[in-house]
Amino acid sequence: MESDIKSLSLEELTQELAACGEKAFRAKQMYEWMHVKLARDFSEMTNLSKELREQCGSRYRYTALEAVRVQESKIDGTKKYLFKLSDGNMVESVWMRYRHGNSVCISSQVGCRMGCRFCASTLDGLERNLLPSEMLDQIYAITKLTGERVSNVVVMGTGEPLDNYENLLKFIRMLTDENGLHISQRNVTVSTCGIVPRMRQLAKERLQITLALSLHAVTDEKRRQLMPIANQYSIGELMEACRYYFEETGRRITFEYSLVGGVNDTDKDAERLGALAAPLGCHVNLIPVNPIKERDFVQSEAARIRAFKDKLEKKQINVTIRREMGRDIDGACGQLRRNYKNT
Questions:
Q1: In this structure, what are the phi and psi dihedrals at residue 283, rounded to the nearest 5 degrees?
Q2: What does DSSP say about strands 126-129 and 109-111: parallel, antiparallel, or unpaired?
Q3: Measuring CA to CA, how many Å separate 271 from each of 51, 131, 215, 217?
Q4: Is 134 annotated in the active site?
Q5: Each residue of 242-287: pLDDT tens digit?
């Protein structure tokens, strides 16, 4: 298979082109075309010789995702993009406008094998991992299509990012590198359902990203009902990994907690959640569960959500209720899926 040129770091690209007899500044020019000017193919790289462009065109694969469908929320202007990959697979990404800037939620895998019960993204299982270029190009394509800069990136779409660890790490480094889009690491959030060994490995990288843990339950028994990963790692092990991550990076972790009516939204649940979050100084993000037709989970009532939030705040926990962006276009948390083939 031809090499994927857009997944090469500047250093790797420099070595690659040097082997073809090209000087280092040519690699810098090409890298800028790909990752700053966001060129969609080699033909746009007008300050490179026609010969070099043709040579690269025949030698390398150039990732440029194709938007097959764009849906816009009538509620809040959120846009959901369905992108076609070079092998015919599909991934979804979501663009959200906030007061503090534009945020893009990207996918890290085609499908997902984690099996969380409230999430549509896992219904068809895992097809394959995404390459760094395929993660980057979700952001690049959306930037080109909207004509607006992206300031925040959330790796919270389809897939478990830490299940695609090496590609994720390279993606973060390239996204935040000064030779590329140079988005601050502090503006990158990675969500995980809790793969403990990978959380510890990520801590050692000492990145300044935000790690968000999909917790969703405060007892092992309840968490096992919602999330199969809980059969491998207990809440005790998870909290140890969170503590280690905080000690290594100095970055506080966010607990993501989907409120499911009558399942995990009692006062006792709030008490226990507070007891887990307080020692780590965690931020808690409450997510009223979003409906998917294959499951019968219902959202907690508004009064119950408020009471749950109040209980946490009384314990001095920093807590927010997630704004539901794009729910009417199935673009909200837990609603992304590979459903294009079925529509």
A1: -90, 135
A2: antiparallel
A3: 66, 41, 15, 12
A4: no
A5: 999 999 999 999 999 988 888 888 999 999 999 999 999 999 999 8
CA angle 295, 157, 183 (to 5 degrees): 160
Write down the mean pLDDT value for the chain: 89
Is residue 92 part of the annotated active site? The answer reads yes
Q: At what angle do helices 302-314 and 267-277 cross, to 10 degrees?
A: 40
The phi-psi region of residue 257 (left if phi > 0; otherwise alpha if psi is between -120 and 50; otherwise beta) is beta
Residue of higher predicted confidence among 144 and 113: 144
For residue 263, count CB atoms less than 10 angstroms from its CB and return exposed for 0-12, middle for 13-18, buried for 19 or more.
buried
Residue 139 phi, psi (nearest 5): -75, -45
Q: From the centroid of its chain, how far is CA 278?
A: 26
Scanning the chain, the segments in alpha helix (DSSP H) are 10-18, 24-35, 50-59, 132-146, 165-176, 196-205, 220-226, 235-249, 267-277, 302-314
Place of tokens 């500047």: 10
Catalytic choice (16, 22, 56, 92): 92
pTM greater than 0.85: yes
Q: Given this model, what pLDDT does residue 329 score?
A: 54
Average pLDDT over every residue of 69-97? 92
Q: Which residue has the tokens 């980057």?
A: 136
* 327-331 mean pLDDT: 55
Question: Of these residues, 105, 116, 242, 333, which one is catalytic?
Answer: 333
Residue 239: what are its φ and ψ, rounded to 5°? -65, -35
Q: What is the pLDDT of residues 127-168, one digit of tens each?
A: 999 999 999 999 999 999 999 999 999 999 999 999 999 999
Strand, helix or coil at 2? Answer: coil
